[in-house]
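R.M. (postdoc): so does anyone remember the format we settled on? I'll just put the C-alpha cells first.
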C-alpha cells in the first residue's frame, strides 16, 4: 500500500508540475501579448491543462502527437523545451520553428511533437499517416491527435476515423470539447453535443471523460495507449473542459455577448490544478513545503524562458526564403 501510494505520489507530483508549467507559462505569454511585446495571435489553453497532461504522461517520449492552434500545452506536456517555445512565440531565431511559425506552428521533434496547425483539423491527416507509418515499419509507436470540438465539423475528421478504424491503426483521437468553436457554442453548430458518439459508427471504442480531472484523463489515456500498443486499434476520447480566456489572446471575452461570468466562474471553481492539489492534500501526497518548492521552480523556469526569448535575435531577413523549397 505504501509503495503504491508513493508510486502514485510521484505521478501526481509530475502531473501537478506539468499542469502548472502550462498555466504559468501561458499567463506570462498572455501578459506579453497584452503589453504588445508579442505581436502574433496566441490562443491560450488555460483551464484545459489536464487534457494534454493526462494523455501525454501516458505516452512514451518517442510516441507522436499532433496539435492545433491552441497547443502550447501539448508541446510542454510532451516535454518540449520551454525557452524554445517562448522564443518561437516571440518570433525569434532561437524558437523551436526558428521564429517562422509563431504560436500556432510549433514543433519538438525530439519529443515526438511533429507539428501543430492553424488549420482546424490539420492534425488528422498527418496523425493517421504517422500511425500508418508505425504499422508499416513494424514499430510500436502510438500517435495521439489533439483537436477541438470545432474540428469534428471538418470532412477530414470522418475520413480519418474511417481510415484508422479500417486499418486498426495505433492512434488516439483526443477531442478537447470546450463547448465553443471560436464564438459559436456547440449547440448552435451540431445536432448532438455528445461527440464521442461519432466514433461508434466506425466501431471505434470511445469514452467521454471529465477533462478537468487529470487522473481520470490519464487513466483513460493509459487504456487507449495500451490498446494501440497491442495493435488493437484506435480509441476516441472526448474530454469535457473549458477555456478560461477568450478564443484568442489573454482577455476573458465576457463583454462580447457570448458567455457569462457565472459560466466562467463555474469552471474556475473546477480548476484542474486546484482539483489535483486538493486531492493530494487530502491523501497526504506532498512532503512538507513541496508544493511551494514546485511553484517556485516553475516560476523560475518561466522567467528564464521569457528572458531567453526577449534576448534572442530575430531571424535574419536574408534567410526569409530558407525552408520554402527543399535544397
Ligand atoms: C479550416 C479552418 N476553418 C476555420 C478556421 C478559423 N478558426 C480558427 S480557430 C477556430 C475554432 C476552432 O474551435 P475548436 O476546434 O473547438 O478549438 P478551440 O479553439 O475551441 O480550442 C476556427 C473556426 C481555421 N483556422 N481553419
Ligand atoms: Mg472548442
Amino acid at each position: 500500500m505504501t509503495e503504491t501510494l508513493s508510486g502514485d505520489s510521484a505521478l501526481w507530483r509530475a502531473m501537478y508540475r506539468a499542469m502548472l508549467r502550462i498555466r504559468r507559462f501561458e499567463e506570462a505569454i498572455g501578459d506579453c501579448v497584452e503589453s504588445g511585446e508579442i505581436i502574433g495571435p496566441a490562443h491560450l489553453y488555460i483551464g484545459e491543462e489536464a487534457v494534454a497532461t493526462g494523455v501525454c504522461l501516458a505516452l512514451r517520449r518517442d510516441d507522436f502527437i499532433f496539435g492545433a492552434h491552441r497547443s502550447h500545452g501539448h508541446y510542454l506536456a510532451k516535454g518540449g523545451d520551454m525557452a524554445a517555445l517562448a522564443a518561437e512565440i516571440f518570433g525569434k531565431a532561437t524558437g523551436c520553428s526558428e521564429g517562422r511559425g509563431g504560436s500556432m506552428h510549433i514543433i519538438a521533434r525530439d519529443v515526438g511533437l511533429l507539428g501543430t496547425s492553424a488549420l482546424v483539423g490539420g492534425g488528422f491527416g498527418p496523425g493517421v499517416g504517422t500511425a500508418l507509418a508505425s504499422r508499416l515499419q513494424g514499430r510500436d509507436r502510438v500517435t495521439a491527435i489533439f483537436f477541438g470540438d470545432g474540428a469534428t465539423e471538418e470532412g477530414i475528421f470522418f475520413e480519418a476515423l474511417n481510415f484508422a478504424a479500417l486499418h486498426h491503426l495505433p492512434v488516439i483521437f483526443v477531442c478537447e470539447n470546450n463547448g465553443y468553436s471560436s464564438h459559436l457554442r456547440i449547440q448552435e453548430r451540431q445536432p448532438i453535443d455528445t461527440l464521442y458518439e461519432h466514433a461508434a459508427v466506425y466501431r471505434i471504442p470511445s469514452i467521454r471523460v471529465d477533462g478537468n480531472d487529470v487522473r481520470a484523463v490519464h487513466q483513460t489515456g493509459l487504456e487507449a495507449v495500451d490498446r494501440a500498443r497491442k495493435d488493437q486499434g484506435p480509441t476516441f476520447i472526448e474530454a469535457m473542459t473549458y477555456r478560461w480566456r477568450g478564443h484568442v489572446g489573454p482577455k476573458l471575452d465576457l463583454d462580447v455577448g457570448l458567455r457569462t461570468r457565472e459560466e466562467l466562474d463555474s469552471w474556475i471553481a473546477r480548476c484542474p490544478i486546484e482539483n489535483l492539489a486538493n486531492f493530494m492534500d487530502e491523501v497526504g501526497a506532498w512532503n512538507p513545503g513541496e508544493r511551494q518548492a514546485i511553484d517556485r521552480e516553475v516560476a523560475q523556469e518561466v522567467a528564464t524562458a521569457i528572458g531567453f526569448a526577449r534576448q534572442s535575435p530575430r531571424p535574419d531577413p536574408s534567410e526569409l526564403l530558407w525552408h520554402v523549397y527543399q535544397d
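R.M.: ...and that's the designed sequence above, right after the C-alpha cells. Also worth knowing: Residues 1-5 have pLDDT under 50 and may be disordered. Residues 2-314 form a domain with the Rossmann fold fold (CATH 3.40.50.970).
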